[in-house]
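In this section we walk through a basic example: taking a raw amino acid sequence and producing a predicted 3D structure, encoded as discrete structure tokens. The instruction is simple. Fold the sequence below.
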Amino acid sequence: MKTTHVSDHDIQQFTFDLSECEADIIKHMHSCGACKERAESYLLLSNTIKDQPEPVLEFNLTELVLDQLPQSSNKESTYTYFIYFLIIASIGVVVTALYLLKDTLIHLFSNTTTISTSFIISVAMLITFALSLDLVRSFNKKTNMLNY
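The resulting token sequence is shown next.
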């Protein structure tokens, strides 16, 4: 049996969860009047807190919070159309450049075989597609973070 009193944590464990309590603490609690009183005061305090009624607010908290949140505007759709316009314009510039430089590109790839040319072009297109997809996902993620 302990000669000193048990800690507050052990008293609370004895009071609220006896199954997790050690045997020597249980022995001490049954034999010590001071520790029993502290356990009873914890139990009384817990019951008093549980018996208190739920607080009733005199105002609608939901409305107050929602009124303070920023409202989404129609500028988002205009901004989205602008982004799409830039993407289409960029694709148009690339296609026009490829069309105008087709003779140079043909001369550049004329010394290589068809398989190696196809491989180079397909790898370049795959890398471009993957980077574009990653860029769009990153952009959408960042805008969603800003829009809540």
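Looking at the output, two observations stand out. Residues 114-146 form the longest helix (33 residues). Residues 8-51 form one domain. In the next section we compare this with other chains.
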